[in-house]
Protein backbone atom coordinates (compact mmCIF):
# COMPACT_ATOMS: atom_id res chain seq x y z
CA UNK A 1 0.00 0.00 0.00
CA UNK A 2 2.95 2.32 -0.74
CA UNK A 3 4.39 2.10 2.78
CA UNK A 4 7.71 0.42 3.55
CA UNK A 5 7.71 -1.98 6.55
CA UNK A 6 10.76 -3.30 8.34
CA UNK A 7 11.20 -7.11 8.57
CA UNK A 8 9.44 -8.46 11.71
CA UNK A 9 7.34 -5.32 12.19
CA UNK A 10 3.61 -5.67 13.22
CA UNK A 11 0.71 -3.30 12.64
CA UNK A 12 -3.13 -3.30 12.46
CA UNK A 13 -4.98 -2.72 9.24
CA UNK A 14 -8.57 -1.41 8.99
CA UNK A 15 -11.10 -4.19 9.49
CA UNK A 16 -9.28 -5.49 12.59
CA UNK A 17 -6.53 -7.30 10.67
CA UNK A 18 -3.16 -7.89 12.44
CA UNK A 19 -0.34 -7.86 9.86
CA UNK A 20 3.39 -8.67 10.00
CA UNK A 21 6.32 -8.35 7.56
CA UNK A 22 8.14 -11.66 7.14
CA UNK A 23 10.76 -12.36 4.42
CA UNK A 24 9.44 -9.63 2.15
CA UNK A 25 5.79 -10.79 2.49
CA UNK A 26 2.89 -9.29 4.45
CA UNK A 27 0.91 -11.87 6.45
CA UNK A 28 -2.44 -10.78 7.99
CA UNK A 29 -4.85 -12.48 10.42
CA UNK A 30 -8.17 -11.34 11.88
CA UNK A 31 -7.81 -9.94 15.37
CA UNK A 32 -8.92 -12.51 17.99
CA UNK A 33 -10.63 -10.90 20.97
CA UNK A 34 -10.70 -12.44 24.43
CA UNK A 35 -13.52 -10.93 26.50
CA UNK A 36 -13.22 -11.91 30.18
CA UNK A 37 -16.47 -10.23 31.32
CA UNK A 38 -20.21 -10.87 30.95
CA UNK A 39 -21.41 -7.39 29.87
CA UNK A 40 -18.59 -5.70 27.87
CA UNK A 41 -18.97 -2.36 26.17
CA UNK A 42 -18.72 -2.28 22.33
CA UNK A 43 -15.29 -1.58 20.91
CA UNK A 44 -14.46 2.14 20.95
CA UNK A 45 -13.98 4.05 17.72
CA UNK A 46 -10.90 2.68 15.93
CA UNK A 47 -10.75 -0.37 18.20
CA UNK A 48 -11.41 -3.99 17.40
CA UNK A 49 -12.29 -5.67 20.72
CA UNK A 50 -15.01 -4.89 23.29
CA UNK A 51 -13.80 -3.35 26.52
CA UNK A 52 -14.50 -4.37 30.10
CA UNK A 53 -13.96 -0.90 31.50
CA UNK A 54 -17.76 -0.50 31.65
CA UNK A 55 -20.95 -2.55 31.22
CA UNK A 56 -23.68 -2.82 28.61
CA UNK A 57 -26.96 -3.86 30.31
CA UNK A 58 -30.35 -3.93 28.51
CA UNK A 59 -28.88 -1.76 25.76
CA UNK A 60 -27.69 0.93 28.19
CA UNK A 61 -23.99 1.64 28.76
CA UNK A 62 -23.01 1.73 32.42
CA UNK A 63 -19.77 3.14 33.78
CA UNK A 64 -17.46 1.16 36.03
CA UNK A 65 -18.93 1.07 39.57
CA UNK A 66 -22.33 2.38 38.46
CA UNK A 67 -25.23 1.24 40.72
CA UNK A 68 -28.67 1.05 39.07
CA UNK A 69 -32.06 -0.74 39.08
CA UNK A 70 -33.32 -2.66 36.04
CA UNK A 71 -36.56 -1.60 34.38
CA UNK A 72 -38.55 -4.50 35.89
CA UNK A 73 -36.37 -4.95 38.94
CA UNK A 74 -39.01 -4.82 41.70
CA UNK A 75 -36.46 -3.08 43.96
CA UNK A 76 -33.55 -5.20 42.60
CA UNK A 77 -30.15 -3.40 42.83
CA UNK A 78 -27.44 -3.98 40.19
CA UNK A 79 -23.77 -2.82 40.03
CA UNK A 80 -21.26 -2.71 37.17
CA UNK A 81 -17.85 -4.12 38.16
CA UNK A 82 -15.11 -4.86 35.57
CA UNK A 83 -17.63 -5.46 32.81
CA UNK A 84 -19.77 -7.75 34.92
CA UNK A 85 -23.29 -6.91 36.15
CA UNK A 86 -24.27 -8.32 39.55
CA UNK A 87 -27.85 -7.92 40.85
CA UNK A 88 -29.28 -8.44 44.32
CA UNK A 89 -32.96 -8.82 45.24
CA UNK A 90 -34.27 -8.06 48.73
CA UNK A 91 -35.06 -11.09 50.87
CA UNK A 92 -38.64 -10.85 52.09
CA UNK A 93 -40.06 -12.93 54.93
CA UNK A 94 -43.31 -14.86 54.26
CA UNK A 95 -46.40 -12.91 55.16
CA UNK A 96 -50.16 -12.96 54.90
CA UNK A 97 -50.12 -10.87 51.70
CA UNK A 98 -51.44 -7.48 52.82
CA UNK A 99 -52.36 -4.82 50.29
CA UNK A 100 -49.21 -4.01 48.29
CA UNK A 101 -47.66 -0.61 48.91
CA UNK A 102 -45.58 1.28 46.31
CA UNK A 103 -42.88 1.84 48.93
CA UNK A 104 -42.75 -1.87 49.82
CA UNK A 105 -40.10 -3.68 47.77
CA UNK A 106 -40.99 -7.13 49.03
CA UNK A 107 -43.23 -9.27 46.92
CA UNK A 108 -46.06 -11.23 48.47
CA UNK A 109 -44.97 -14.67 49.68
CA UNK A 110 -47.99 -16.39 51.27
CA UNK A 111 -47.39 -18.53 54.29
CA UNK A 112 -47.54 -22.30 54.07
CA UNK A 113 -49.94 -24.33 56.20
CA UNK A 114 -48.93 -26.87 58.81
CA UNK A 115 -51.87 -29.21 59.31
CA UNK A 116 -51.86 -32.55 61.12
CA UNK A 117 -48.11 -32.96 60.75
CA UNK A 118 -47.97 -32.05 57.07
CA UNK A 119 -47.00 -28.85 55.25
CA UNK A 120 -49.11 -27.55 52.39
CA UNK A 121 -48.32 -24.72 49.96
CA UNK A 122 -50.60 -21.74 49.65
CA UNK A 123 -53.63 -22.61 47.50
CA UNK A 124 -53.15 -26.40 47.85
CA UNK A 125 -56.35 -28.47 48.09
CA UNK A 126 -56.44 -31.81 49.89
CA UNK A 127 -58.76 -34.24 51.68
CA UNK A 128 -58.67 -35.31 55.29
CA UNK A 129 -57.10 -38.68 56.01
CA UNK A 130 -59.65 -41.36 55.22
CA UNK A 131 -62.39 -38.82 54.56
CA UNK A 132 -62.85 -38.05 50.89
CA UNK A 133 -66.11 -36.26 51.69
CA UNK A 134 -64.25 -33.24 53.12
CA UNK A 135 -62.13 -30.88 51.01
CA UNK A 136 -59.57 -28.54 52.62
CA UNK A 137 -57.62 -25.62 51.17
CA UNK A 138 -54.54 -23.73 52.45
CA UNK A 139 -55.08 -19.95 52.47
CA UNK A 140 -52.21 -17.81 53.78
CA UNK A 141 -51.25 -20.13 56.61
CA UNK A 142 -54.83 -21.06 57.52
CA UNK A 143 -56.63 -24.29 56.58
CA UNK A 144 -60.32 -24.14 55.71
CA UNK A 145 -62.30 -27.37 55.31
CA UNK A 146 -65.79 -27.92 53.93
CA UNK A 147 -67.99 -30.83 52.90
CA UNK A 148 -67.89 -31.90 49.28
CA UNK A 149 -71.00 -30.47 47.55
CA UNK A 150 -73.55 -33.06 46.41
CA UNK A 151 -75.80 -32.85 43.35
CA UNK A 152 -79.52 -32.16 43.72
CA UNK A 153 -81.57 -35.37 43.43
CA UNK A 154 -84.96 -35.48 41.72
CA UNK A 155 -86.28 -38.51 43.61
CA UNK A 156 -88.27 -38.50 46.89
CA UNK A 157 -86.50 -38.97 50.21
CA UNK A 158 -87.58 -42.61 50.68
CA UNK A 159 -85.92 -43.58 47.37
CA UNK A 160 -82.48 -42.16 48.27
CA UNK A 161 -79.60 -44.33 49.46
CA UNK A 162 -76.02 -43.76 50.68
CA UNK A 163 -73.66 -46.56 49.70
CA UNK A 164 -70.50 -47.61 51.59
CA UNK A 165 -67.66 -45.15 51.01
CA UNK A 166 -69.92 -42.71 49.19
CA UNK A 167 -70.17 -39.04 50.13
CA UNK A 168 -73.44 -38.25 48.41
CA UNK A 169 -76.75 -40.07 48.24
CA UNK A 170 -78.05 -41.53 44.99
CA UNK A 171 -81.53 -42.46 43.81
CA UNK A 172 -82.54 -46.12 44.07
CA UNK A 173 -84.17 -47.75 41.08
CA UNK A 174 -87.96 -47.74 41.51
CA UNK A 175 -89.39 -51.15 42.51
CA UNK A 176 -90.86 -53.30 39.80
CA UNK A 177 -94.64 -52.79 39.52
CA UNK A 178 -96.70 -55.46 41.30
CA UNK A 179 -99.88 -54.55 39.46
CA UNK A 180 -101.84 -51.78 37.75
CA UNK A 181 -103.19 -48.86 39.74
CA UNK A 182 -106.08 -46.89 38.25
CA UNK A 183 -106.32 -43.28 39.41
CA UNK A 184 -109.96 -42.84 38.43
CA UNK A 185 -111.40 -45.32 40.95
CA UNK A 186 -108.38 -46.23 43.07
CA UNK A 187 -108.57 -49.95 42.24
CA UNK A 188 -105.33 -51.89 41.86
CA UNK A 189 -105.38 -55.01 39.68
CA UNK A 190 -102.71 -57.72 39.82
CA UNK A 191 -100.66 -58.56 36.75
CA UNK A 192 -102.74 -60.67 34.35
CA UNK A 193 -106.11 -59.54 35.73
CA UNK A 194 -108.81 -58.99 33.06
CA UNK A 195 -111.74 -56.65 33.71
CA UNK A 196 -114.25 -54.39 32.01
CA UNK A 197 -113.90 -50.69 32.77
CA UNK A 198 -117.70 -50.07 32.48
CA UNK A 199 -118.39 -50.83 28.86
CA UNK A 200 -119.24 -54.56 28.46
CA UNK A 201 -117.78 -54.47 24.95
CA UNK A 202 -114.33 -53.35 26.23
CA UNK A 203 -111.92 -55.64 28.09
CA UNK A 204 -108.67 -54.57 29.77
CA UNK A 205 -105.69 -56.56 31.03
CA UNK A 206 -102.91 -55.58 33.48
CA UNK A 207 -99.51 -55.98 31.80
CA UNK A 208 -96.30 -57.12 33.57
CA UNK A 209 -94.78 -53.62 33.35
CA UNK A 210 -97.71 -52.02 35.19
CA UNK A 211 -99.42 -50.70 32.07
CA UNK A 212 -103.05 -51.37 31.08
CA UNK A 213 -103.98 -52.65 27.63
CA UNK A 214 -107.64 -52.48 26.51
CA UNK A 215 -109.43 -53.87 23.45
CA UNK A 216 -113.02 -53.66 22.20
CA UNK A 217 -115.11 -56.71 21.22
CA UNK A 218 -116.68 -56.75 17.75
CA UNK A 219 -120.15 -58.40 17.73
CA UNK A 220 -121.58 -60.25 14.75
CA UNK A 221 -125.42 -60.50 14.84
CA UNK A 222 -126.54 -63.83 13.37
CA UNK A 223 -130.33 -63.45 13.73
CA UNK A 224 -132.84 -60.76 12.75
CA UNK A 225 -134.30 -60.39 16.24
CA UNK A 226 -131.47 -60.82 18.77
CA UNK A 227 -131.99 -60.46 22.52
CA UNK A 228 -129.84 -57.89 24.31
CA UNK A 229 -129.03 -59.01 27.84
CA UNK A 230 -128.07 -56.23 30.35
CA UNK A 231 -124.36 -56.34 31.23
CA UNK A 232 -123.57 -58.49 28.19
CA UNK A 233 -121.71 -57.02 25.20
CA UNK A 234 -123.11 -58.96 22.28
CA UNK A 235 -126.82 -59.82 21.77
CA UNK A 236 -127.90 -63.43 22.29
CA UNK A 237 -129.66 -65.26 19.47
CA UNK A 238 -130.05 -68.57 21.31
CA UNK A 239 -132.21 -67.37 24.20
CA UNK A 240 -135.27 -66.36 22.15
CA UNK A 241 -136.60 -63.45 20.12
CA UNK A 242 -137.28 -59.78 20.64
CA UNK A 243 -140.53 -58.56 19.04
CA UNK A 244 -142.06 -55.10 19.46
CA UNK A 245 -140.07 -54.54 22.65
CA UNK A 246 -141.07 -57.91 24.17
CA UNK A 247 -138.89 -61.01 24.60
CA UNK A 248 -140.28 -64.41 23.61
CA UNK A 249 -138.62 -67.73 24.25
CA UNK A 250 -137.71 -70.26 21.56
CA UNK A 251 -140.77 -71.96 19.90
CA UNK A 252 -143.14 -69.61 21.75
CA UNK A 253 -146.29 -68.59 19.81
CA UNK A 254 -147.76 -65.08 20.16
CA UNK A 255 -150.25 -62.88 18.24
CA UNK A 256 -149.02 -60.31 15.78
CA UNK A 257 -149.15 -56.72 16.98
CA UNK A 258 -150.12 -55.57 13.50
CA UNK A 259 -152.89 -58.08 12.71
CA UNK A 260 -154.75 -59.96 15.51
CA UNK A 261 -155.67 -62.64 12.94
CA UNK A 262 -151.99 -63.53 12.48
CA UNK A 263 -150.11 -65.82 14.85
CA UNK A 264 -146.29 -65.58 15.20
CA UNK A 265 -143.75 -68.11 16.49
CA UNK A 266 -140.15 -67.56 17.72
CA UNK A 267 -137.76 -69.83 15.84
CA UNK A 268 -134.01 -69.75 16.46
CA UNK A 269 -132.16 -70.29 13.23
Automatic annotation (TrEMBL):
UniProt-listed GO biological process terms: cellular response to virus
Main localization category: secreted
Location in the cell: Secreted
Domain annotation VWFC: ranges: 1-53, 53-114, 111-172, 178-238
InterPro entries linked to this entry: vWF_C/EGF_Fibrillin, VWF_dom
Pfam families: VWC (PF00093), VWC2L_2nd (PF23334)
Coiled-coil boundaries: none
Domain of life of the organism encoding this protein: Eukaryota
Keyword Transferase: no
Record's keyword terms, sorted: Glycoprotein, Secreted, Signal
Gene Ontology CC: one annotated term: cytoplasm
PANTHER family, A to Z: VON WILLEBRAND FACTOR C AND EGF DOMAIN-CONTAINING PROTEIN
Protein name as it appears in the record: VWCE protein
Organism name: Quiscalus mexicanus (Great-tailed grackle)
Upper taxonomic lineage: Eukaryota, Metazoa, Chordata, Craniata, Vertebrata
